[in-house]
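so im writing up the methods section and need the DUF459 domain-containing protein record in one place, dumping it here so i stop losing it
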Amino acid sequence: MVATSLMLSLPSTVSFAQDGGDRRNLFNMLFGAPRTERYERYERPTRRYDRQDGSIIEMAPRRQRSRATPQAAVPRARTAPIPFQPQAEPVAKLETAKKILVIGDFLAGNIGGELETTFATSPGVSIISRSDGSSGLVRDDHYDWLGQLPAILDEAKPAIVVVMLGANDRQQMDTASGREKFRTDAWFKQYETRVAELAGMIAQRKLTLLWVGLPAFQSPSMMADAVTLNTLYRGQVEKVGGEFVDIWDGFVDEDGRFVLTGSDVNGQQVRLRNSDGITLTKPGKEKLAFYVDKVLRRHLGDMASPDLAKFDSSTLPPLQTLESPANPEVPVRPISLVDPELDGGQELLGGNAPPARLTETPRDKLVKRGELEPAPAGRIDDYRLTTQ
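--- predicted struct ---
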């Protein structure tokens, strides 16, 4: 009954809720409407009505949800562009230039390409690269290095031979007794024979042999096999008087673990290996060739200098001939550069006896006898009395 009486007593002006406002129930009338603005994205517009006729007399503007003022974008600092450094123009090679032959697989091809750039300005050094990326000492059906090397040596006529093989040799090998699996004793015995034959072929021609060892690989099994093969290479190469170039430390960390990123030839941290963990990036190729370059310069000597000059009739100035003297009766006597008469004496300096009496200097008098010569007349330390 109380609720019914309250509803009847309300004025008819509550009908404004149908004009767009929220509908109100009995609970809202008694206890108030809930705050809906906290659940809505935007608040509803607030209207104010005339109590006489119910017309709208004012509408407050809709209040937008507060938003944070966007901050001005901070410009990112741009690093200065690396200045372009043009490469030096290659120079013509001398006829007497020492030829360096680089043979092997894809890693040997990296060495050959970088050495060509390194010695491009050295007229006394010529790089010849003969590499096959998929070759090795196992798949002689793909490329037979033992059969092709004699012809390559006859054609190139090198003074130094750089060899790098083995990255593709971790596979089965065809032998006279059949196919041998990798890592078996028979496989290593046959492989050692092929390495010794290749190294001996170069040593018989009295050529300098540099055998470059394998680097570390990302695969643990490949890394372990590379250590075993490098031991085999070193032993066979040193037997024939060659030199083994160890590059292992350049591609591992301090603990001997494989690294993708390491120091380049300038000591800067760069990416050395590609994502496959086998091939090399541009800085990695430069570092690989750097190890070989250090050993080569010991054998090349002055020939590796870019300032090597060619002394012949094309570079030397023409010789100047002296004209005959105007009076041919006066003999022309050659002058010896070691003639003592040139300096006006016949004896060496100090050869003459000292004079019998030497003039005693004021310093000698002061040091020996403590005598000080009188000051000149008129000087501030002249204490002699003068008569006017």
